[in-house]
Every structure is written in C-alpha cells, then in structure tokens.
Amino acid sequence: MSLRRFKTLMLLLCAACLLLSGWMIYHSLSGLQMAGCGAGSSCDSVMGSRWAWIFGYVPVSLPAAVIYLLLAICTLFLSGEPVQDGSLNRLLLWIMPMFGGSLAGAALWFSWLQAGVLHAFCKYCTALHLLGCIMAITIMVYALKQASVRQTWSFFAAGVATAMLFTFVQTRTAPASIYAAGTTDSDLPSFSEDEVPVLQAGPGAQDPQDL
Q1: Which of 19, 104, 108, 123 is placed for a possible disulfide with 136 were both Cys, Cβ 3.0 to 4.6 Å?
Q2: CB contact set of 182 (below 8 Å; sequence gap of 6+)
Q3: The CA-based dihedral angle spanning residues 149, 152, 158, 163, taken in that order and rounded to the nearest 10 degrees
Q4: Residues 6+ apart with CB under 8 A from 113
Q5: Within the chain, where are the H helices?
Q6: Measured between alpha carbons, how far is 188 from 22 in angstroms, rounded to an integer?
Q7: How many CB atoms lie within 10 A of CB 32?
Q8: Which helix (H) or strand (E) holds 202?
Q9: 93-148 confidence digits (pLDDT tens)
Q10: What b/e sequence results for 53-79 when a residue is b if at least 16 CB atoms lie within 10 Å of its CB, and e otherwise?
C-alpha cells in the first residue's frame, strides 16, 4: 500500500469515526435519543446501559474520539522519508499500531458486552467498532511493510493491553444497576391505609359484600 493511498484511507476512516462518535457523545450528554433508537429498542438498551459510560459520567465514545483525532494527526504528519532511528516517521509507526491495538481491543470488549451481557446490539456502536477494526488492520498492513515486524506487533500488543486496562477501570467505576431480571434490591414503597385512594360507592350502589 502506497503512502498516498494509506493516508487517504486513514483520513476517511478517521473522519467517519469522528463524526459518528461525536454524534454519540452529543446524544449521551444531552439525553436525547438517536435516530432508530426508540424506547425499548436494542440500541436504546445499549446506549442507556451503565456500560455506555466510564467513571460513571464520561461517555465511552469520548476516549474513542480522542484516539481517532490523534490518529488523524499522526497520519497527516506521516511522510515518505526512510524510517530511521530518532526520525518522526519511526515514532509515528510506533504510536499508530498502539492506537490500532487499542481500537481492536475495545471492539472485542464492547462486542462481548453486547452479546454476552446486554444481549442487545447497537447499530451505531457496531458500525463504530467495525470501522475501528478496519482502521487497525489498515495501520498494521502499512506499518509491517515500513518498520520492524517485531516492534510493530509489540506496540500493537501494548495497545491491546491499554484496552484491557480500560475495561478494568470501567468494571470498577461503572454505576451499580439496581434492576436485573425483574428483581430489585431496593425496598418497595409502602403506603398507609389513609394514603391509598378508595372508590366511594354512589347513592343506590349495592354493597359488594351483598353480592
């Protein structure tokens, strides 16, 4: 793959992912439903779950958007100069596989959450993860031809490890769910007899005890 073709494909993928993740961030923070994600839909179940956030209040699309932006910047600064020790190209060809590994690891984590935990799939999330995996493959195809194979895979593995660290933090900071499988750990409300509305029989109505 030539440098020009690589940069064109990467910039298109980054732009698509930034637009999609930015839209998801806006809807997460505003509380508005996304198109096709009506109440009770699979998309709504995923976007409204506790796994759609990290630290309890940060949309998971936000760190993903940061990675897409950094990848776009790296792509713009990548040149056709030989990869040498201390060169910018060498540094970029270390960073980009690491970001690719992070995207691939995150895609596996959230795909497993949707399939194994939530039993629902969000079309926007799935599209974003698919684009992220295509981006990771594109990076690896180019980097393996330009830099050391061992170092390229090492930085890719470091990116996957970063995604694993993300999953650990998310599992520790995700807000606890009080509802699961039709049961709740919260105490049900109780009412006294005076607080419960009672229907009064009108004139001439028959007493239910006489029926």
Answers
A1: 104
A2: none
A3: -120
A4: 51
A5: 3-30, 42-47, 61-77, 88-112, 123-146, 149-173
A6: 39
A7: 9
A8: none
A9: 889 999 999 999 999 999 999 898 888 888 888 999 999 999 999 999 999 888 88
A10: bbeeeebbbbebbebbeebbebbeebe
Output the CA torsion sign for 173, 64, 24, 125: negative
CB 118 within 8 A of CB 45: yes
Give the integer Cα–Cα distance in Å for 189 and 203: 34
Tens of pLDDT, residues 172-182: 887 765 444 44
Residue type, 27: H
Please give the model's pTM, rounded to 2 decimal places: 0.76
179 has which bridge partners?
Answer: 184
C-beta separation of 51 from 117 below 8 A: yes
Any idea which residue has 């179940």 for tokens? Answer: 45
| DSSP state, residue 133 | H
| Angstrom distance (rounded) from CA 18 to CA 68 | 6
